[in-house]
Each structure stands twice: as C-alpha cells, then as structure tokens.
Amino acid sequence: MLSFRISPKTEKELSEYCEKTGTPKSQVVKEALAQYLIQKKNSLDPYEAGKDLFGQEGSGEEKNSKNYKSIVKSKINAKHSH
What would the DSSP string read from start to end of 25-48? Predict the structure, then answer.
C-alpha cells in the first residue's frame, strides 16, 4: 500500500476528471505512475545519449581539437594552390 499527499488543486482536478470519466482515482494514479516509470526508464542522461560520439572515434587522431586551425589552414592552402 502506498500513501502520498497532493495539493488541494491537484486533488480537485483529479476528482473532477474521475467523476467526468467514471474512472477510479486509483486507476488514474496507477496508469500515470506506470507511464512515468516507462518514460524514465527509456530516457537517457546526456552522457549516455552522446556516449558513442565522444572521443577520437571519428578520425582516429587524438589531437584534432588542439590542431584544428592548422589542419583547416593546410587544407585550404592545398585546395587553392595550383
């Protein structure tokens, strides 16, 4: 068994919804909690969501972030030198 407190406003909205739909409060709460848990289970934290994009996997070179200006400059020079 589980007990919890909700604000009077939420209690009023829940009661109105349940009365309008003929749904027991306990059923609404069970369904809402089930949806919440599914959503939390399926959501990833930011690190987990981008984990496969971090590190040196793309180019295989470690220092691209430190040397990017010289890399870009050399590529532009190579492209425009005839």
Answer: HHHHHHHHHHHHHHHHHH---HHH
Residues 13, 20: Cα–Cα separation, whole Å: 10
Q: Domain limits of the chain?
A: 7-47
Looking at the whole model, is its pTM more than 0.85? no
Contact assessment for residue 16 and residue 10, using Cβ atoms and an 8 Å cutoff? no
DSSP state of 62: T
d(CA 26, CA 48): 34
Answer yes or no: are the C-beta atoms of 20 and 13 closer than 8 Å: no
Average confidence (pLDDT) over 39-43: 83
Dmax (CA) of the chain: 80
User: Do residues 15 and 25 lie in contact, with contact meaning Cβ atoms separated by under 8 Å?
Assistant: yes
